[in-house]
Amino acid sequence: MSVAIIDYGSGNLRSAAKALEAAAREEALDLSIEVTAKAEVVKRATHVVLPGVGAFADCRAGLAKLSGMEEALQEIAVTKPRPFLGICVGMQLMADKSHEHGTHPGFGWIEGEVVPVAPREKALKVPHMGWNELAFEAPDHPLFKGIPAGAHAYFVHSFALAPAHGNELLATVDYGGPVTAAVGRDNLAGTQFHPEKSQRVGLRLLANFLRWRP
Amino acid sequence: MLKARIIPCLDVKDGRVVKGVNFVDLKDAGDPVEQATIYDREEADELCFLDITASHENRETIYDVVAGTAERCFMPLTVGGGVRTTDDIRRLLLAGADKVSINTAAIERPEFVSEAAMRFGTQCIVVALDAKRVSSGRYEIFTHGGRKETGIDAIEWAKRMAASGAGEILLTSMDRDGTRKGFEIALTRQVADAVPIPIIASGGVGNLDHFVEGVREGHAWGLLAASIFHFGEHAIHEAKAHLAAAGIPVRQTHSQI
């Protein structure tokens, strides 16, 4: 097994790599984890993780700067599918487009748009920052194995992906109304929360991802 | 439902913890990574390092501390103290910090906050405000550990920083810091009600009721404390249980997984 974590100048790569290592260690999984900016490493990987912090357009531009990376992503997502996990903005990039600072195209893997978090209660702050409870729309998804409903995950975001198809919404979180917490279909999954910062719950999800054979 | 956050803060000087946890099972009470690991195990909601290293040449030590922590702790980490350039921020984020707090540099050059937010995203830019009550009853921003006044109104400054792209405000009452008399509630509430972004209240926690006051009366959902945890008077889970008993939602896990 080999996991590629895509390095395109986004922030929390080290945390993601260390958390995946810890998850693999606990599960006694034999794998190599590579933080990489190279398309050929991504194409060779058995599992691909796309982290992302910052603004949507900056992240997309950062990816576009890496030679062959967008094609490599298309390959592992669609044409030669392998387990893919997008985290935070890495998940939002799976959408058709985002409305963060203008309108920008995503990969179009999950039909839907990235829109501002707009809690009904005015007292609720944006960014949505902190620990919140997961409500599973797809409780039997392999990524959630061993994670009970109501488990807490760490969120920090001002925009969220609103998927067009209900069956691609895997989990939500309540923040003045339901907010997308996870999306997915086939070999693709994305979490708005940060599993690499969600202590036991996050490590469990990452271990599930490593064991995932969609 | 979003939960109130309990955030222990460790002061780090020259790569060593100042006034850290004094538990018997610690191998090295001055090792920030070991202290961070304890708080991770206790399921603190976030962790904060405040680097108080004075000398320029020792400023490199914080990066090792952050990197070591990120290797072992899978919880959100905020690092502040001496952050002056976008390069400082970049290095802290690459080492494994999730959020970086900016204090004096924002006062000296307010555009720094918007530049940092543009480059790294608002979610990782925390602006730290050190405020003190002045004779008129207003709160003003002070620097240099509360010694130097700026004449800037704290509420107006918080609003300006939020508009500049800060994702969070870390609000410390210099009047209460170290007193153990509880948060400066009037200040906390005025700032929390004035800005659309989350607030971390800091300064003065001396007992568990103070956390409840911070949320209920101060309207802050981030609650930072140091000595109450470090000296082993209370564990993180006790603070959470106390908040929960008062009807405030908290993440009480103690290993559901």
Characterise this structure:
The complex is a heterodimer of chains A (214) and B (257). Chain A is of the alpha/beta class and 214 residues long. Chain A has one domain: Rossmann fold (3-Layer(aba) Sandwich), CATH 3.40.50. Helix content of chain A is 27%, strand content 32%. Chain A is built from six helices and 14 strands. Chain A has helices at residues 13-26, 39-44, 56-64, 69-79, 89-92, 199-211, and strands at 2-6, 32-36, 47-50, 84-87, 95-98, 104-105, 110-116, 128-133, 135-136, 152-157, 159-163, 169-174, 178-185, 188-191. Chain A has an eight-stranded mixed sheet with strand order 2-1-3-4-14-13-12-9. Chain A has a four-stranded mixed sheet with strand order 6-5-7-11, with no helix packed on it. Chain A has a two-stranded antiparallel sheet with strand order 8-10. In chain A, α1 packs across α6 (199-211). The two termini of chain A are 15 Å apart. The model of chain A has no long low-confidence stretch (mean pLDDT 95). Chain B is α/β, with parallel strands linked by helices. Chain B has ten helices and eleven strands. The A-B interface holds A 11-15, 18-19, 22, 53-55, 58, 123-133, 146-148, 151-152, 154, 156-158, 174-175, 194, 196-204 and B 1-3, 5, 40, 43, 45, 67, 70-72, 74-76, 93-96, 98, 118-124, 167-168, 196-199, 219, 221-222, 251, 253, 255-257.
